[in-house]
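Board notes (copied after class):
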Amino acid sequence: MKKRLIVDIDGVIADIYGQFRKFELEDFGTNQDYSEITGKLEEEAFVNGEIYMATKGFFRNASVIPGSVEALKKLNKTHDLFIVSAATKFPNSMAEKQEWLLENFPFITWQQIVFCGTKEIVKGDIMIDDHFKNLDKFYGQTILFSQPHNLNRVENGHNRVANWDEISQLLL
């Protein structure tokens, strides 16, 4: 029986930090180095972060995190894969994220995409996420995808990975 794999979008397969930095560069002419934002949650690191996330095109135009397409294509064959995003806080993000997924991950069907308000309701065997708030409440195996906001924190039993090659080594 295949294991159910839950994968986050923002910060795991979509480069949200790149989007924040791009928007800040356009607005303020600044481009924070990752060392300046390490250990800070997105809302601390980026003053207008919530405004940016509510802006049309923010999610739609994010870059794909390297290695995620190839790895998810393989994992989709070996696991019951679901892409799960706590997207309802920013309603326009749901349509943008779905369009983005269909364009960049065409092998993922609409039945494999779940938008919710909190991931506490999600059940599965394995979750890959970049936020402790989601992993800490998950009852299966947890994989913490490294991002600047979580780098200074202890893993708390989560298996930390730096990239999709490491995920492939763990799960394939």
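Comment from the instructor: The mean pLDDT is 95. The two ends are 15 Å apart (CA to CA).
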